[in-house]
Amino acid sequence: MIIERLDFSCALFGLKDGLVFSAPHIPVHLGAMQDAVQYQMRAIEIKGGDCILSIHPCAGGVHLPDLTMSMIMICLGIHPVLEFMSSCGFEVVQAYLAHIQHHAEIAVGNMLRDVSMTTDGVLHASDKMDDGSMINLRVEIDSQERSVTFHFEGTSPMVTS
C-alpha cells in the first residue's frame, strides 16, 4: 500500500500492514499512518485498486489535509510498484520488503546502542509552546533489549488549540 500526498509525504506498507519505508523527512502525521493502515486492514476487505481515505481519529486519522490526496497521485505512485511485482513476482517483492524491514531494525538497534554508549542511555529535552506550556521529555534507551521508553513527566496538561 502506498500513501502519498501532494506535500510528498509518502510511505510503503507491506502485506501484513507493517511500515517498510517512508519519506526521509518523516512529517509527524506519517507516524500515525501505520495505525491507520492497520485499522483499515482489520475493518475493510481491501482489494486491488481500492483507495481508502480516512480521517477518523480511531482509524489513525490525525491530519485533515490527508483528505486532499488525489487518485492521480496514488496511481502514479503505485504504477512502478505494480511493474516491479509483475516482473519479479509477488513472493520475491514480499521477501525484499521483509529484508528491508529486518535491516532497518538492525540499523535502529545499532544506533540505539551507539547513542546509549555516549549518553548512559538517558536523554533529556524540554521546550515551551507558544502559550508557555512546557513539554518535558526523558528518553531511556535499553541497548540490551533494543528498546526506547519515552517519559513526559512534568509536561503541561493538554491544551485545546
From TrEMBL:
Annotated ranges, domain Hydantoinase B/oxoprolinase: 2-71, 77-160
Annotated InterPro entries: Hydantoinase_B, Oxoprolinase-like
Pfam family, one: Hydantoinase_B
Region forming the signal peptide: none
PANTHER family documented for this protein: 5-OXOPROLINASE, 5-OXOPROLINASE RELATED
Protein name: Hydantoinase B/oxoprolinase domain-containing protein
Biological source species: Clavelina lepadiformis
Taxonomic lineage: Eukaryota, Metazoa, Chordata, Tunicata, Ascidiacea
